[in-house]
Amino acid sequence: MSEEEIQEAEDRRIEEAVETSDIAIKVRGLKNSFGDQVVHEHLDLDVRKGEILGVVGGSGTGKSVLMRSIIGLQTPDEGEVCVFGESMIGRLDDEALAIRKRWGVLFQGGALFSTLTVAENVEVPIREYYPNIGPQLRDEIAAYKIRLTGLPTEAGPKYPSELSGGMKKRAGLARALALDPDLLFLDEPTAGLDPIGAAAFDDQTRKLQQTLGLTVFLITHDLDTLYSICDRVAVLADKKVIAVGTIAELLALDHPWIQEYFNGPRGRAATAAVEREKGKAANKPTDGRQ
Ligand SMILES: Nc1ncnc2c1ncn2[C@@H]1O[C@H](COP(=O)(O)OP(=O)(O)OP(=O)(O)O)[C@@H](O)[C@H]1O
Ligand SMILES: [Mg+2]
Question: How far is the CA of 192 from the centre of ligand 1 (A)?
């Protein structure tokens, strides 16, 4: 078999794994440390296929490090990470190429290449993983992804420095969607956005997740995001995931950080806002009129 045929067979095998797995990400016994500082120990987590999992925890508890361990940018001291049933630990980049193509990442802060335009940024993963795709098709894919995130087509030739914070996030999202991923990692996607921009970004994320059938690993401090679009929430504290569940399930737990987080003034305000929205939706006419 030629190298290309081997890669194609590997792509097919992974596609089948994506289709048949119920669990998108499985983490077991993860340990991460930097020198003497132990960030994670005995950390377990399952992310179900098709869900939006919110990941919360105080600043510095290791949310970004957890994401980096899953996508192979951080080699853990101990533990197992599987994505769609494929073990990710100790895999060379080349070896795990077929699985790496199945995810897209929006890093904390956006991490756009400042010397490239928005369209060129979106084309980076396409160039990297599909070098045989010609420039015209590449441009068309980039333009489509840019529109998909709600950015105007005119944003394509702009440089990141010419964009607002919200537009940068959408450009980062367009790049994360470049390869039609099954799995999307978002690290603080609404941080720094005004409430209207943040709600619009949340809506877009939910819409994309539903129409594209994505699994989303969403790190956030934004209580509105947690309440409005997350199916379940994982709480990081004491170096591990101390609880995973719906917000109602988490609220039933007696952990001080969870109670403070969801039942503090901001948490209560977010709950009240969601209840109001639900009330409005319930009062809409149900005889088919729009
Ligand atoms: N490359 C690194 N070298 C040394 N220490 C690191 C490195 N990356 C992260 N850390 C440390 O690991 C801990 C967890 O960092 P991480 O970035 O995962 O936090 P976080 O939960 O994402 O916080 P935030 O909510 O502020 O983004 C921090 O104490 C951080 O200083
Ligand atoms: Mg972080």
Answer: 19
Q: What are phi and psi of 26, to 5 degrees?
A: -130, 120
The ligand 1 atom at the shortest distance from the C-alpha of residue 67 is 18
* pTM for this prediction: 0.90
Q: Where are the alpha helices (DSSP H) in 71-222?
A: 97-100, 118-129, 135-148, 165-176, 195-212
Closest-CA residue to 83 (of 25, 44, 13, 15): 25
Tracing tokens 């039609």 back to the chain, one arrives at 180
Q: Tokens for 198, please give them.
A: 């943040």
Half-sphere exposure in the Cβ direction for 249 (13 Å, CA): 10
CATH class of 3-89+215-282: alpha beta
Q: How far is the CA of 113 from the centre of ligand 1 (A)?
A: 22
Per-residue tens of pLDDT for the chain, all 290 residues: 787 888 888 888 888 888 888 999 999 999 999 999 999 999 999 999 999 999 999 999 999 999 999 998 889 999 999 999 888 887 766 677 888 889 999 998 778 999 999 999 999 999 988 888 999 999 999 999 999 888 999 999 999 999 988 889 899 999 999 999 999 999 999 888 888 888 988 998 999 899 989 999 999 988 889 989 999 999 999 999 999 999 989 989 988 899 888 887 777 777 777 777 767 766 655 444 44
Best probe residue, ligand 1, of 41, 55, 64, 217 (max atoms within 8 Å of C-beta): 64
Domain ranges of the chain: 3-89+215-282
Ligand nearest the Cα atom of residue 34 = 1
Under 8 Å between Cβ of 231 and 47: no
Alpha-carbon distance 223 to 67, whole Å?
20
Q: Is the CB of 225 under 6 A from ligand 1?
A: no
220 lines ligand 1 (CB under 6 A): no
